């Protein structure tokens, strides 16, 4: 599985309906699982972004499909970053010439 860190910012629509956010998050988790992914951690944060999610998906294509579905719902805008574990980083560095 490929790991991703996603930063999310509420849209105006999402902020207006903030009381429904916990339900929407639960629904998004179920949608990700239906695509073969898994939510590892989720945080509400203060600052430039409103949420941070750490998730796994079977491929970049699955992640992109999921994030496009989130965007289409209109409540959040996302910025996803492919992430590597410490172990993967060690393997990458070991390949350096």
Description:
With 97 residues, the chain is of the alpha+beta class. It has one domain (2-94): Alpha-Beta Plaits (2-Layer Sandwich). It is built from four helices and four strands; from the N terminus they run E-H-H-E-E-H-E-H. A four-stranded antiparallel β-sheet has the order 2-3-1-4. Strand 2 (38-44) and strand 3 form a beta hairpin. The longest helix is centred in the first third of the chain and has 14 residues, at 21-34. The radius of gyration is 15 Å and the shape is elongated. It starts with a strand and ends with a helix. The model has no long low-confidence stretch (mean pLDDT 97).
Helical segment count: 4
CA-atom Rg in angstroms: 15 Å
CATH hierarchy, class: Alpha Beta
Reported by name, the CATH topology is Alpha-Beta Plaits
Morphology call:
elongated
- First-residue to last-residue Cα separation: 27 Å
Q: What class would the helix/strand composition place it in?
A: alpha+beta
Helices and strands, in N-to-C order?
Answer: EHHEEHEH
Beta-strand percent range: 25-35%
Q: Give the uncertain stretches in residue-range form.
A: none
Please give the largest β-sheet.
Answer: 4 strands, antiparallel
Number of strand segments: 4
